[in-house]
Design a protein that fits this description.
With 203 residues, the chain is α+β, with helices and mostly antiparallel strands. The chain contains five helices and six strands. It folds into two domains: 12-49; 53-201, Roll (Nuclear Transport Factor 2, Chain: A), CATH 3.10.450. It has helices at 16-45, 53-73, 77-81, 101-108, 183-201; strands spanning 84-91, 98-99, 117-126, 129-138, 147-157, 163-172.
């Protein structure tokens, strides 16, 4: 068996024009093969384009925030604690720092505000770290007026691929104007509208 592919060597006795014609036939075939390989590669990679990594991460973080809201509104400290990393830190206003998932669970076990609403304003992601900026609203009750505030929640994607909260801090909006009798109901409606507008505009 010849060690050369069929047609690799032209007959020395053949006219020069014949040998040249044989060479010219081989070049387009090689080029065509390259184009076919390139096209196959393009078609393989041109299916449904995957979402950019940061967009995928933002969706997962937003899912965490939705779980946070559900757990809070359900007054479920175990579900809340499950959203935090082992060494997570909670920084409540007017309260000492709370560190560790078990301590976070104990903090939320003291009870959560009825009627609580929260809205994501923005989500930022860089690699395995991200944070959420948002607004919250607590309606008035027999003891306290309505409250609005803002929060920052930091998250990290851990080894198992799950995004968990590493730091959680919030504080109420300042209101220096003294409230007049009868203002509470109107102010509550305005604050609810603000939060719901934020929810509508959230990503």
């Amino acid at each position: 068996m010849s060690p050369h592919p069929s047609g690799a060597l032209a007959d020395p006795a053949a006219p020069a024009s014949a040998r040249l014609s044989t060479a010219h036939r081989r070049v387009p075939q090689a080029v065509l093969a390259s184009w076919v390989a390139w096209l196959a590669l393009c078609l393989t990679g041109c299916g449904a384009a995957p979402s950019p990594p940061d967009q995928s991460a933002k969706r997962k973080i937003e899912n965490v925030m939705q779980s946070y809201s559900r757990a809070y509104r359900s007054n479920d400290p175990d579900a809340m604690a499950a959203l935090y990393a082992d060494g997570a830190m909670l920084l409540p206003p007017g309260h000492e720092l709370v560190k560790g998932r078990d301590s976070v669970r104990a903090f939320w076990s003291r009870g959560m505000e009825a009627g609580f609403e929260m809205a994501t304003v923005s989500i930022e992601v860089s690699g395995d770290a991200g944070y959420v900026v948002g607004r919250y609203y607590v309606p008035p009750d027999d003891e306290d007026d309505a409250e609005t505030g803002k929060y920052i929640i930091a998250l990290r994607r851990e080894r198992d691929g799950v995004w968990r909260i590493t730091a959680d801090i919030w504080n109420a909006d300042d209101d220096d104007e003294p409230e007049q009798p009868g203002d509470s109901t109107g102010r509550s409606v305005a604050l609810v509208d603000q939060v719901r507008e934020t929810i509508t505009q959230s990503p």
